[in-house]
Amino acid sequence: MLIPARMSEAEEQRWVNVMLDKLAAQESRRTLDDSDLAERARRLSDQYFDGRARPASVRWVTNQNTRWGSCTPSEGSIRLSHRLQGMPEYVVDYVLCHELAHLLVPGHGPRFWRLLEAYPRTERARGYLEGVVAAERLPHLPGARGT
User: Fold this and answer.
1) Average pLDDT rounded to a whole number, residues 15-31
2) Residue 70's beta-bridge partner residues?
3) What is the distance between the alpha carbons of residues 53 and 69, in angstroms, rounded to a whole number?
4) Are 6 and 18 in contact (CB under 8 A)?
5) Global pTM value
């Protein structure tokens, strides 16, 4: 979070607390449990893949820190990184669509990407996720005013 340099330490702390409270409220509204996630995957499959991608299970996992999602087509299982929780819905939907597409096409070849073109926010969501990764790699400079 960036704040004006003219803010006092007390104003800065108050503003940070206000914004963190707002973010926490947004995240709690956006967090889906595993059954909600499975239902969402079903709706996305119906909408973008004519219902052909039917996972046996869809769940959040906490052991994926370098991937946003993964799929095991032979088992029909989809796992989404907990790091997606609280991100915009279109981003979570993109990752779900990406993994659903793997149920139909295992690799990342041209056929896979043609299939994924059905989801209209693919490029926007990929850009968002690339921005998150880039921000995580930024050096945290001592003395910088930002949280």
Assistant:
1) 60
2) 79
3) 16
4) no
5) 0.74
Buried b / exposed e over 109-141, threshold 16 CB at 10 Å, is: eeeeeebbeebebbeebbeebeeeeeeeeeeee
Write the burial class of residue 98 (CB in 10 Å: 0-12 exposed, 13-18 middle, 19+ buried). buried
Task: Give the Cα separation of 22 and 18 in Å (integer).
Answer: 6
Q: What is the pLDDT of residues 46-57, one digit of tens each?
A: 999 999 999 999
Residue 99 has pLDDT above 70, yes or no: yes
Torsional sign, CA 67, 30, 50, 52: positive
What is the set of domains in the chain, with CATH numbers?
A: 32-137 (3.30.2010.10)
pLDDT at 21: 58
Q: Letter for the amino acid at 142?
A: P
Q: How confident is the prediction for the chain on average, in pLDDT?
A: 87
Residue 83: Cβ within 10 Å count: 17
Sheet holding 77-81, edge to edge: 57-61, 77-81, 69-72
Q: Which amino acid does the sequence have at 77?
A: S
Does an H or E element contain 61, and which?
A: strand 57-61
The candidate with the shortest Cα–Cα distance to 31, out of 60, 5, 2, 9, is 60
